[in-house]
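The material for today's practical consists of a large collection of protein records. Getting from the letters to the tokens is the skill we practise here. To make this concrete, we reproduce a full record directly below:
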Amino acid sequence: MRLQCEVEVVSRLLPTCGLRGRGRGTRALLSLGRPPGRARGGGGGNSGGVYLMVQENIERFFTRFVEEGKATVRLREPAVDVCLSKANASNLKNFLSAVRLAHQGTDIGALPLSTLVPAKNSEVEKPKTKMIITSRRDYPLTKNFPYSLEHLQASYCKLARIDMRVLCLKKLRKLDLSHNHIKQLPATIGDLICLQELNLHDNHLESFSGALCNSTLQKSLQFLDLSQNKIKALPIQFCQLRELVNLKLDDNELIRLPFKIGQLGHLRFLSAARNKLPFLPSDFRKLCLENLDLFGNPFEQPNPLVPNIQLKIPLTLLECAARATINYRIPYGCHLLPSHLCEDLEVAKTCQCGSACLSSFIQITVTMNLHHVAHTVVLVDNMGGTEAPIICYFCSLDCYSQFLDRYLQSNG
């Protein structure tokens, strides 16, 4: 007899006889007779699931909720409960009747058994992979999310924090939590090892955790929408998310873009419109974008003739050592150097000559046409401009003088 339902085998003892304590994926094979070569009880696993004998082996039936399609058959050996749910009530009653007669030793030929008919594809419920919630009243408060979810959208739900149940969805590829009230991101988002798209548009975020940048998101995250939040700066570690293809930072309070943004080698779409950016980082030149939108930022007017001089002459021993470490590509790490020195080396500047400089440098801003880094550029302002100021660094007076000579000649 075939009964369409969910089956859960629950062990009442320690998980012996090859049975696990609880497992919704367990398939129970109930034998109404006694097949040759098997002892009563059995309980051994096979390729089809858990094999359980019924004859003279039933301890108790639990049928209080049979009208709801639920029942439990308690076996003596092994000590397990076979929990049935989501069954047709009439079919379940017939099934339990056959199991009761088999337990009492009724000849199998006299049991009310029907011919086995394979279930149709339309009758088999497929694992749910997508769930879209667009209102607070539809948000599940008492039921768990299906563990098979690959795409979850929970927008306009007035969420103040990310639901910890969401962080258990290990197959999740796309998470959309836009239009909520989320203020902080838990580091455990990094445990979603398959996450490719994260949409946090229109929340109350003030920061993006450096811990997230050091998580498995480094290898999986391709789309990130942080637009319409309250973020003022992104952490140094942000550029470790090197699989990013599409990054949206519009309508925040950003006063700078990530220092090493040029490390995002896969980045093709970048929008940071309507922020508070005065200029672009030097590393911006390394990007290779398809689309760029920096409209509505208060970019400063560049003036290469008014440098910010931070030179220390003679160079300190620390500066010399740092420059040599980077220029000669000497390996370093927290196991060799104090962590604060490693952090300083990670944000070292690069002179126009290609050499490194740490805290001794000359800084200026120059004009860059954004078409040098992007195929399509949204106008920077209402005047039709596609140029923006970008920072340049020089490791010495000589390097700055050579640049100045070229600049005056080209503008003379």
Remarks:
- Residues 1-18+54-121 form one domain.
- Helices lie at 89-103, 210-213, 217-220, 317-327, 339-346, 397-410.
